[in-house]
Specification:
Strands 5, 6, 11, 12, 13, 17, 19 and 20 form an eight-stranded antiparallel sheet that branches. Strands 10-9-8-7-14-4-18 form a seven-stranded antiparallel sheet, with no helix packed on it. Helix content is about 30%, strand content about 25%. By secondary structure, the protein is α+β, with helices and mostly antiparallel strands. It folds into two domains: about 5-25 and about 265-435; about 50-260, Jelly Rolls (Sandwich), CATH 2.60.120.
Length: about 475
Amino acid sequence: MQAKQLFALLGGVLLTVLLGVLPAVAARSTCSVGAVEVACPRDPVGPDGRAVSDRFTFAHRPLGTEGEVVAHLASMSGVITYPPPEHTRIVEGLVPWAKAGLMVKDGLDPGSSYAAVMFTGDHGVRMQHDYVHDVAGSATGASWLRLTRSGDTITGYESADGRGWTPIGTAVLAGLPATVQVGLFVTSPGDLTLGSAGAQIRFTQASASFDQVTVSGAAEADWIGSTVGESGTTDWERLHRAAGLVAENGVLTVTGSGDIGPVGTIGGAPLERALLLGLPVLVLVVAVVAARHRGRRVVVGATGFLAGSLAAGLALPAGVVATGIAGGSVLPVDAFTWVGVIVGVALLVGAIAVLAHALRSWLLTAAVTVVPYVLALVLPAEAGDWLLRVTPAAGFAVVQTAEEYPQVLADYSPAVGYFPLPGWAGLAVTCAFAALATVRRPSPGTSGWWRSRYPDRPAAPGRPGSAAGTGHPSAGTG
């Protein structure tokens, strides 16, 4: 490649890195205690090393290595502040993933291992453990829950009458200590609305009353009400209903808010945020260079691969550092994921370089790659997802590291790093378009009819498919 083309690619790489830093600077957050600025709190980390949300109210007491807790749900209610469509008043009700039930937990530290069975606002009975695991029980009919411990094995049950029990699931919590905390918990995540103004979350709260609560396998002890994580501090809780435990006449009423589960992009920045702005720019630069290059296609693809790997390899760590300096946090991922994103971006840029070289048009390449990607960020979710499935822009999915969890309500759109196809599938779509574009076609001035009838003769001059401009295929020198 010529020196000016290499300098253009280098400029694209540097611009990608700069645009990777920009979202962190724009989203800079500060925290203070009084007049003193302090580091903003980070999300707790769960047993598998991922960022989690662990905020709830817990009525608890100790439990040994063998035992169980049983409880009957007498009632469950809640409030939702300023829900759509009017956003003008506080209403009674439960959000779909409000939770109330029984839990075994390795202490009270946020992020510690746990297993729980629960009733939910609109998803029936569930058993969940260690933040990411979720098993569905019955949709309706149950009003009793039971949670048993045998060493590291926790088993959840449900019942309609407290006598016949149906198992929901079993969790193995490796390394549980001899004494854990067991009891009743309640939490209620924010009410999420997605619109033109972005994601908006409103405070909610849930309360559950349990009676006929029994614990076996431990000495008799008083129930202790605790708020796990940063919860119970809102004006609503201070002025109207505080989070905590109320015990009266054998009924334990627990009130709380928050969530227990993996953190989505609302709770932290995904790693790929550093590429969401810069990668389309890099693709555009590479498309211009590739479309004008007259060398071998393998060279074009290899150059695109190197440009993509260099851009991703620099932009990702720069984005992480900038986010930390700005007071934010990046959702942690393992080294394998880092390498996967860098290699995926390199393959994507290489494939788009081949596509541009085959089309001989950077403008057409941009129209089928960058334009659908940009439209997907601003169009309604269904239209955007369709574009990112059936166009060469599907390959942008290689940047995704954030995971979608059915039990966590969040903004799962391309604007925050979620794509409708897995990275490998999106890359396969882009490569298929590139391969299709490279299929050799007749050169300009050569008729497909002439080649099929006279394969040994050169293309005749003049009008395609005619000799000496006569319009008759048999005329000419022969």
